[in-house]
Amino acid sequence: MSRIGKQPVALPKGVQVDIKGGTVKVKGPKGELSREFPAHMKIESKDGQLVVTRPSDAQAMRALHGTTRALLHNMVAGVSDGFSKTLQIEGVGYRAELKGKQLVMALGYSHPVEVDPPAGISFAVDDKTRTIVISGTDKELVGQVAADLRAWRPPEPYKGKGLRYLGEHVRRKAGKAGKVG
């Protein structure tokens, strides 16, 4: 049996779940999320918990069992607490600012990089720590937006300049040894 799939998902106060067929809608203080799940995965709400059961012990069903439970847990955690990713800006002349809801970054290109947040995502910029915080209710979307921003200027190994995740270690290279002689 799946160790993750058999664990129930606890529903915090203020979170409501609506299960109709394969569609699950989760509503909480931070927002609302909806997702389609495979029809053969049985999702039930019992005693303030969500329980996922699978129809058989086939390999595909075992894999879907844990995945379904993990996605449900992320939906519940997202609408109750929310998710966030933090990017650090390293490099001389690299900076970011907010113009309304739009994120405008100077990353060494001849033009500023302007990014509009998708629905459900918000940006916050701290000039002192040179960080960008991406927050929202959908864990998958928060991670994808953070990866898309990082892709504009990933950290390079010689000087370490670029956008990196908070706490990410960038392996550094020595560079040219110089002329000897």
Key features of this structure:
single chain; 181 residues; Outer Surface Protein A, domain 3; 4-stranded antiparallel β-sheet; 3-stranded antiparallel β-sheet
Major beta sheet, strand line-up: 11-12-7-13
CATH superfamily of the largest domain: Ribosomal protein L6
Strand content: 35-45%
General form: elongated
Helix/strand order, N-terminal first: EEEEEEHEEEEEEHE
Largest sheet: 4 strands, antiparallel
Write structural notes for this entry.
The chain is an alpha+beta fold. It folds into 2 domains: 9-80, Ribosomal protein L6 (Outer Surface Protein A, domain 3), CATH 3.90.930.12; 83-165, Alpha-Beta Complex (Outer Surface Protein A, domain 3). It has helices at residues 59-80, 139-152, and strands at residues 9-10, 16-20, 23-28, 31-36, 42-46, 49-53, 83-90, 95-99, 102-106, 113-115, 121-126, 131-136, 162-165. It has a 4-stranded antiparallel beta sheet, covered by helices on one side.
